[in-house]
């Protein structure tokens, strides 16, 4: 493919990764800092002294500023993707960042914008920063542009969330060839598609989310039978628990309320995470930190105590697992393989719970843990990317089937929901239902597309609205309106309505209610390009100014140096004149003129610099000679050098 490589991207809530296919093996591409995981954090540096636009940072750099300037960083943005203002507001209760002041919470079509320092961004724009970082990492690795990607999304992501992810890709300059469900990607990474058949459970416990998916494999084809989970359950809950316990002990044992020391709480959180990670492989871990009152908080946590503490958190994954099996009409005995995904599945107690939930040991089975649980989704995305790039051989005809997480339908008379595609239907899917009018001579029909399991439209999630217009007036009940739902391979929904007697049709592109319009996406892309240029120009100017200031400072001191007297009058005049020119240019904004002026000044002072250097060398040598003479009397050392120096004196 002339376009170059297609990469696979896991755009995670906590961490994101990019991977590619090296021969037959998927591998993760490391960042400049050598780490495979890019924390999904975006931060805005403080505004520079000259008032220019602050720099946006991503990943580990951004995570550091999350600690120093929590109000200037955004994390877990995946939770906000494709969501409406009110949903985002509800979600933000858990986070320190907030919506931009001018967001109209009553306008359902408004895409929320999050305030980040002085700037505001929509969730897809924030995700685009993360994707751009991954794209850059890949480009640096290949030494060539990367323009196409496969991005993974949770199996339960709805239409708007999928669309928002695609938008983010576009803003980052990536053509998203396919969105793949995370559990499907994990199964691909393990090459489970090569097995003839079986039922696979993918248990994914990450930083802040838990997902369980049941896949069915038949003749090398995956079908997602069911999905379940908890959108607020993961490693963060364990961190919070350990922090809360430590805070409590510090208060009772040391009489210090650390909660009023933001830095100390952050430090404590870091120790808690370190302790948690240690406890995944060792029998005990310890906390040791200095308190603001000078005392030390020291605490040893044995594995047994830790496991007791976290048991209630882990236990919360059991319900969704049982529900997913029930939805798929399966028993643990029907599950042939279990794949562990997510950093938190490194916890031995999690592995034991999984063993128990799926009755593995008793059946002589083990869960798949050979691949890094935090890399496995990205690796699978790379496998899928390779298939789409057309270079796959054996897996060429691999088709991926996924499932709709919630039922889809339209609002019918009386505000009830008419389901058209039931939940857990495999996709791509299409279904058609027939409707009619309820009013005499009705010429317009309002189609309200809904998602959810509840009976009443008001209790379901509104995805889109559109009107079928121009139906010839007929008696109520006579028109025959066909509503067709089509979900494509990316899980994106399109709805069409057609009155069959008259042939009147509304070929309406359903825009998710909370999605961005094409125009908005385009303008955001333009915006980021515009600013990228502006940022670049600003940086050039700042650099040019620094350079000019450095040389001016040196020229300022020149007349005091003995070498200045060795220059001709002309040379001195030229330097003085150019100095004034550079001083004037420094106050302006013309980068090119400033650089040209600086170069001229630099050239004019070159001979002076040489003279200064020789002077420095000769005095250094003189000093050394005298020292040496003092140390080693009678020896002839460095004889020629004082001569050379004399020439200039
Ligand atoms: P996400 O899919 O949410 O982006 P990851 O799969 O990268 O997240 O998992 C991140 C979580 O895994 C964090 O809570 C992190 O602390 C946890 N984690 C990583 N390594 C370990 C370990 N060795 N033991 C326990 N938890 C771990
Ligand atoms: Mg993940």
Strand percent estimate: 15-25%
Mean pLDDT: 84
| Count of distinct strands | 27
> How big is the Rg?
33 Å
> What structural category characterises the helix and strand content?
alpha+beta
CATH superfamily of the largest domain: ATPase, nucleotide binding domain
CATH architecture annotation name of the largest domain: 2-Layer Sandwich
Note the quaternary state here.
Answer: single chain
> Which kinds of small molecule does this entry bind, naming each only once?
adenosine-5'-diphosphate, magnesium ion
What would you call the shape?
A: globular
What is the CA–CA distance across the termini?
69 Å
Number of helices: 16
CATH class of the largest domain: Alpha Beta
Stretches with pLDDT under 50, minimum 5 residues: 392-399, 624-649
Helix share of residues?
25-40%
The CATH topology of the largest domain: Nucleotidyltransferase, domain 5
Largest sheet: 6 strands, mixed
Give the domain tally. 4
Plain-language structure description:
By secondary structure, this protein is an alpha+beta fold. The chain folds into four domains: 5-233 and 316-402, ATPase, nucleotide binding domain (Nucleotidyltransferase, domain 5), CATH 3.30.420.40; 235-315, Actin, Chain A, domain 4 (Alpha-Beta Complex); 406-530, Sandwich (Substrate Binding Domain Of DNAk, Chain A, domain 1); 532-638, Substrate Binding Domain Of Dnak, Chain:A, Domain 2, CATH 1.20.1270.10. It has 16 helices and 27 strands. Strands 1, 2, 3, 4, 10 and 11 form a six-stranded mixed sheet that branches. Strand 12 (197-205) and strand 13 (210-218) form a beta hairpin. Helix 12 packs antiparallel against helix 13 and helix 13 packs antiparallel against helix 14. The model is unreliable at 392-399 and 624-649 (pLDDT under 50). It binds adenosine-5'-diphosphate and magnesium ion. Magnesium ion is lined by residues 12, 206, 342, 377.
């Amino acid at each position: 493919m002339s376009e170059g490589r297609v990469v696979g991207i896991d755009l995670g809530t906590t961490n994101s990764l990019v991977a590619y296919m090296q021969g037959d093996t998927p591998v993760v591409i490391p960042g400049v800092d050598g780490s495979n995981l890019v924390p999904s954090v975006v931060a805005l540096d403080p505004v520079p002294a000259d008032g220019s636009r602050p720099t946006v940072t991503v990943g580990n750099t951004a995570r550091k500023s999350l600690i120093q300037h929590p109000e200037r960083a955004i994390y877990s943005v995946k939770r906000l993707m494709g969501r409406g203002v009110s949903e985002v507001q509800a979600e933000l209760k858990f986070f320190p960042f907030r919506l931009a002041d001018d967001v109209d919470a009553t306008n359902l079509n408004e895409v929320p914008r999050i305030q980040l320092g002085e700037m505001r961004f929509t969730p897809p724009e924030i995700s685009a920063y993360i994707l751009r970082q991954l794209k850059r990492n890949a480009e640096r690795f290949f030494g060539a542009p990367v323009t196409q990607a496969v991005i993974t999304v949770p199996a339960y992501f709805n239409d708007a969330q999928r669309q928002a992810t695609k938008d983010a890709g576009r803003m980052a300059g990536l053509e998203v060839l396919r969105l793949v469900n995370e559990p499907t990607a994990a199964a691909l990474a393990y090459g489970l598609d090569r097995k003839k058949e079986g039922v696979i459970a993918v248990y994914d416990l990450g930083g802040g989310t838990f997902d369980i998916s049941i896949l069915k494999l038949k003749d090398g084809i995956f079908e997602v039978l069911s999905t379940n989970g908890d959108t607020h359950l993961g490693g963060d809950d364990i961190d919070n628990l350990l922090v809360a316990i430590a805070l409590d002990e510090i208060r009772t044992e040391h009489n210090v309320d650390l909660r009023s020391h933001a830095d100390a709480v952050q430090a404590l959180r870091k120790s808690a995470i370190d302790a948690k990670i240690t406890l995944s492989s060792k029998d005990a871990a310890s906390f040791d930190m200095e308190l603001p009152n000078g005392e030390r908080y020291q605490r040893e946590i044995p594995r047994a105590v830790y496991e007791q503490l976290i048991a209630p958190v882990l236990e919360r994954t059991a319900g969704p697992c049982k529900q997913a099996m029930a939805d798929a009409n399966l028993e643990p005995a029907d599950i042939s393989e279990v794949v562990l995904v997510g950093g938190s599945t490194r916890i031995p107690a999690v592995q034991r719970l999984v063993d128990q939930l799926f009755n593995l040991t008793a059946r002589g089975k083990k869960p798949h843990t050979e691949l890094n649980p935090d890399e496995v989704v990205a690796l699978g995305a790379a496998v899928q990317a390779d298939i789409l790039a057309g270079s796959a051989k054996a897996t060429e005809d691999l088709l991926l089937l996924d499932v709709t997480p919630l039922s889809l339908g339209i609002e019918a008379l009386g505000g009830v929901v008419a389901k058209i595609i039931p939940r857990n239907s495999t996709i791509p899917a299409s279904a058609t239902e027939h409707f009619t009018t309820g009013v005499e001579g009705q010429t317009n029909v309002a189609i309200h597309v809904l998602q959810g399991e509840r009976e009443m439209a008001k209790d379901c999630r509104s995805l889109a609205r559109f009107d079928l217009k121009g139906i010839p007036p007929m008696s109520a009940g006579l028109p025959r309106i066909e509503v067709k739902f089509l979900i494509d391979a990316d899980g994106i929904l399109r709805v069409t309505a057609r009155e069959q007697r008259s042939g009147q049709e509304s070929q309406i592109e359903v825009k998710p209610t909370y999605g961005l319009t094409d125009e908005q996406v385009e303008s955001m892309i333009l915006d980021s390009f515009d600013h990228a240029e502006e940022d670049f120009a600003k940086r050039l100017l700042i650099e040019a100014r620094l350079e000019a200031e450095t040389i001016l400072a040196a020229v300022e001191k020149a007349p005091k140096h003995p070498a200045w007297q060795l220059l001709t009058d002309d040379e001195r005049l030229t330097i003085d004149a150019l100095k004034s020119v550079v001083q004037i240019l420094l106050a302006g904004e013309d980068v090119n003129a400033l650089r040209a002026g600086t170069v001229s000044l630099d050239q004019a002072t070159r001979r002076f610099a040489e003279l200064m250097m020789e002077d420095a060398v000769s005095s250094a040598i003189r000093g050394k000679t005298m020292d040496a003479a003092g140390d080693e009397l009678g020896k002839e050392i460095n004889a020629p050098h004082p001569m050379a120096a004399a020439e200039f004196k």
